[in-house]
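Changelog-adjacent note: as of this version, every example in the card shows the full chain rather than a window. The one below runs 232 residues end to end.
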Amino acid sequence: MSNHPNDLDAFWMPFTPNREFKSNPRLLVSANGMYYTTSEGRQLLDGCAGLWCVNAGHGQPKIVEAIQQTAKELDYAPGFQFGHARAFEFASRVTELAPPDLDHIFFTNSGSEAVDTALKIALAYHRVTGDGSRFRLIGREHAYHGVGFGGMSVGGMVKNRMYFGSLLTGVDHIGHTHNLEQNAYSRGQPEWGAHLADDLERVVALHDGSTIAALIVEPVAGSAGVFAPPKG
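Full-length structure tokens:
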């Protein structure tokens, strides 16, 4: 253990008002099942499943055992020029769950990395198939696609974009579906808004479809407020 005092200053926390948090920190010390335990001993219901990644609950015995056994057997295998059988097995099992035309898996470490990789794959695909004029990336207003430069560029959250200059070039956005005047008291999927899918046609008319490499859209807009898509 270090002799340095833990004054919380060294860790710069993402998406968190650091000074406010560190003046009255909310520290978690353990978790089990559906609950976190805080440093004061309070139990908190984990309604977000960590950050949408602990859906089976915390401390699930089979998962704990699998993690321990895997770390003991092989803690890390490089993906460059080497492989591990379970990575290939896992990829095959994922393709079995996916629709028939989704039959290749590229593993990444985060959503931000996944989005930037997907955008790069789209651009590279058109380049190697002789269609290099397709370079434009289309996102949607209010969308969140991570914090890499690619994800911020196709994303449509103003506060995520405003500090980082021009970001990627050749990016445009279609309109969002959040309209309080039309959908203020909707239950489930709103009746109004399906016509907004046609906003892509506006972008195609503006830039010509032959220049568009990819469109990225959240089926349910998450970070901007969990906006359910309209019917249709």
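Structural remarks: The chain has three domains: 18-72, 76-107, 111-215.
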